[in-house]
Design brief:
The complex is a heterodimer. Chain A is of the alpha+beta class. Chain A is built from three helices and five strands. In chain A, strand 4 and strand 5 form a beta hairpin. Classes of the chains: A alpha+beta, B alpha/beta.
Chain lengths: 137, 99
């Protein structure tokens, strides 16, 4: 397992992406899986960076592991911000017209659709969000 | 990294994007469009070299579509399969005109 601790700032996204991408490359991740994982990283990290902490800011711990037979990657985000379960948000209605569409909600929807597993728990005052996806389709 | 190239002729504007439309670059496109859409009736995005789009990029496209619904038309050309997949999952294929 590899881990990286970052300040929860959207400006750190590139740092997070290169950290995880380097691990995925070692495991021969397919381009399609790689892109969907990258997108999930962006959506989850930016969400935490924007909503978890007040002005004072805080950290996110990101853990990357390849459980079992190493056919999937599991990425866990741990922050100590205010309790927030992104999975409780209602799914966006993707059948609405442009005029009726709400801005927002699409990021988490993309994560749910593209990952094989998205799990949230709150433990000892920490938000723990885990995503998992197969490395090849 | 996102390169934005604009080709304007009369009331037509073509915006050629190259790179990634994500959290970091979407605000750049948004402000670029804010300055350029006045008096445009025909807006075309060329996505041939757009490799990646996230929800931040979708938001900018949705606002552009809303503006163009009022003043003309908007379409996307040369969309790559991996970007098109994002449009499909989010139902944007029904909102946008993709050729």
């Amino acid at each position: 397992m590899k881990e990286l601790r970052l300040e929860a700032d959207p400006g750190n996204l590139t740092k997070l992406l290169s950290f995880v991408t380097a691990e995925l490359e070692k495991k021969n991740c397919s381009p399609k899986a790689g892109m969907q994982i990258e997108m999930a990283l962006e959506e989850v990290f930016v969400n935490i960076a924007q909503y978890a902490y007040d002005a004072g800011g805080g950290d996110v711990l990101v853990r990357v592991s390849f459980p079992g037979d190493e056919a999937s990657v599991e990425i866990t985000f741990i922050d100590s911000g205010q309790p927030f379960n992104p999975l409780e948000k209602p799914d966006p209605d993707i059948t609405l017209s442009a005029e009726e569409r709400q801005i927002g909600g699409l990021g988490i929807w993309l994560v749910k659709e593209n990952m094989d597993l998205v799990q949230y728990r709150n433990e000892n005052g920490k938000n723990i969000l885990t995503i998992r996806r197969k490395l090849r389709d | 990294m996102l390169n934005i190239n604009k080709e304007q002729s009369g009331e037509s504007l073509k915006v050629v994007l190259e790179g990634r439309l994500d959290t970091m670059t979407a605000p750049v496109l948004e402000s670029e469009l804010k300055q350029s859409l006045d008096n445009v009736k025909d807006l075309v995005f060329d996505f041939e070299k757009l490799e990646y789009i996230s929800s931040a990029g979708l938001r900018v496209l949705l606002s552009a579509q809303k503006v163009m619904n009022r003043q003309g038309s908007m379409k996307l050309v040369h969309v790559r399969p991996e970007v098109n997949e994002v449009f499909e999952v989010t139902g944007f294929v029904d909102i946008l005109t993709i050729e």
